[in-house]
Specification:
The protein is of the alpha+beta class. The protein has helices spanning 8-17, 35-48, 62-65, 121-127, 143-148, 184-189, 238-244, 284-303, 307-319, 332-335, 362-372, 376-379, 422-433, 461-467, 471-481, 490-496, 501-504; strands at residues 30-32, 51-54, 74-79, 86-92, 95-101, 164-171, 176-180, 197-206, 212-221, 247-253, 260-269, 326-331, 350-352, 355-358, 384-389, 404-412, 440-441, 453-454, 457-458.
Length: 505
Amino acid sequence: MTALPNDGRGQLYNFFLATESPPIGPTVPELVNNEDELKNVIKSAREGKKIVRVVGSAHSIGPAIGDTVLTPNERLIRLGGELRSFTVLSEQGDTKIVKVGGGCYLGKNPLDMDSTWANSVNVQLANINCAIPILGGITQQSIAGFTMTGSAGGSVAHGFEDIIKEIHFIDGKGQSQVAERGTDLFNAVGVSLGLFGVITYMVLEVKTPSFNVGGVEKTVSVAESVLAVNKNTGTSKLQETLENTEYFRLMWFPQKYAQKVTEWSGKRSESTKIEPYKDVVGNPWVAGAAAMALRTMHWLLTHVPGEDTYKFIGDTLKIFVKEKPTPFNDVWYKTIPMDDQAPTDTIFKTEFTELWFPMEETENVLNILKKLYEDQQVAGNYACELYAGKRSPFWMSPAYNRNVFRFDPFWFYHQGVEGKGVREYYNHFWKALMKVDGVRLHWGKYLPYSGGTYGGVEYGAAFLKKSYPKMDDWLALRAKYDPDQIYVTEYWRKLFGIETISAQE
């Protein structure tokens, strides 16, 4: 990781960086600046029977990127130079065709000193009066990493895949490939987890002129929120809200003495009056105070459970939510990613598991969660996030062929030693929710153990083949483009049931 400047903000960041282990081991990734250099790496890897993996912003969990402790058999690379470039290929009216290097960050990566807002995809698009119709909650990810892990923003009206025209990659034979929109290869490689090859460029067809997003963030009680059950219908307004609000996300504090919901909703705005969105933990000192509070609350939950602790947690959490409705109106890349201001990979480092459900399962899942959260150890000391996602054409996207409802229970990294305890916490949710029909999970976040049983459901290759109807086709194409398996780590091999080459022979 790259340390930050030695000012007040940097000192606070660096303190927390010093307390965490690197996400993928101590090895510094090799810098690859163009396709020729990459092909040389692949040639060398094939000759030496090594594995090649790419790290973008390292926002995914370590095993999803590479081995937690890199072995001599693995080469970890990062993309720079030409592979972070931004080129306008053509313009016709409002439509622009741009070619973006796979290593180019959507926004600014605070852990990469070479990353600036000026060289981000978002700002460079805005400079030519273009906009990405939807973004995730944060934008520090590389454009290739965001895409190939199946990441998404909170909207059923807009999908990130809508603007992707071509995906360029170097396959396991060191050959250049171009996957064009509408083809099987495009739908397979879009969410490919680095198992087809290295995405070097993406060609975007951007038809949307730059726009502002206006809306409001408000914190209300659960009884006043879209989670409240209507006495006449017996259901909440959550699914209706997700389906009919252009941009929406909900943060739920389910603790017995908190019972708060922060609702963020927005839509494209004609207003030119700028009212910046401000995240309450965007101030590093507030983030630091909140981080210390989370650690304290976790210690109390672990060592002194009981009503006094639960009341303390509820009262403390209320300090860090904005009770007064806060309007905002600003350019798309400053508003849609509402968590960009929060130091979520340093001071406020947050871990995720993210479960995606068919939209029609929203009320069922919400009822399961309400029951789970009656246990204050499950309610914990943090929030969870509820939001939607648009159907995707990518075969291995958790949103493949359907609109989805998404649930993220948060875990504060620094309350455990190197994340210890996170899987025990997520087991509560996996055991209760893996039996919901159609559940899928975000590939870059914590997944249940392959071969493990959760609520009577065994998670592994057989489960995934039922969940992803095109998985066999995806695996067959994967083998074609990477016959020597130079992109296959043991983590992915076990999960997808990919046999070794010797076993196949």
